[in-house]
Write a structure and sequence with these properties.
Blueprint: H1 8-15, E1 20-21, E2 25-31, E3 39-42, H2 52-68, E4 77-83, H3 92-105
Parallel strand pairs: 3-4
Antiparallel strand pairs: 1-2, 2-4
């Protein structure tokens, strides 16, 4: 995927940054001047989501929200989204609203 953070070293560096929390998820972000486009990853741990199908489902849902906001995302940002278990039960509209609010608070998305 074009906008994915894949290297463990980069992900760990971002996970060391100060987190921003909402009720159902957490975002950590970092400014990256080397890239010309934003990069992100979604960390759905096995500890929180026991079944692979649930992990994949939540990643697909969050990815679709990020793709829908891609024109508003700051191009120099790298970020990691860490959802909580309750996110599986949220309707898509609430998930999109909460994630977009969190991205605005993190200054990843401009309004």
């Amino acid at each position: 995927m074009k906008n994915s953070l894949a290297k463990e070293k980069e992900i760990v560096a971002i996970l060391r940054k100060k987190p921003l929390f909402s009720r159902n998820m957490m975002i950590r972000c970092s400014v990256n001047s080397k890239n010309t486009d934003y990069r992100y990853t979604i960390v759905a741990s096995k500890k929180v989501f026991k079944q692979a199908t649930k992990r994949n489902r939540i990643k697909r849902r969050i990815r679709s929200v990020i793709i829908s906001l891609r024109k508003q995302i700051n191009k120099k940002m790298d970020f990691v989204v860490v959802p909580k278990a309750i996110v599986l039960d949220l309707p898509y509209r609430e998930l999109k609203e909460e994630l977009s609010t969190l991205l605005v608070r993190a200054k990843i998305v401009t309004q």
